[in-house]
Write the structure tokens for this entry.
Amino acid sequence: MSRFRVIPSAAPKLTREQMYKVLLAPVITEKSTMASEHNQVTFRIPLDADKRSVKQAVEGLFSVKVTAVNTIRSKGKTKRFKGRPGQRSDSKKAIVTLAEGSKIDVTTGI
């Protein structure tokens, strides 16, 4: 009996509705704009989204070829809101690297 888990080679296909739930919004900052020069696009994603589903969603919605997906999970900070302590929510971003020749314009709608 093997102690290694068998990972299926093909992830289940996502419906178009599920693709929209995986990609919440594009991140438009100075840093993400500079990364777009290197064929990279940044999206805000749910905390439970994985790299495979992000890749499927980007390829399905934008009709491009994705070479890599990197995810970043940031813990929410404790900040003061109107003098009272509060907690910002946790967030997760995905930096998607596109194949050479592929391009996504996040300023236009899908």
Observations:
- Residues 16-98 form a domain with the Alpha-Beta Plaits fold (CATH 3.30.70.330).
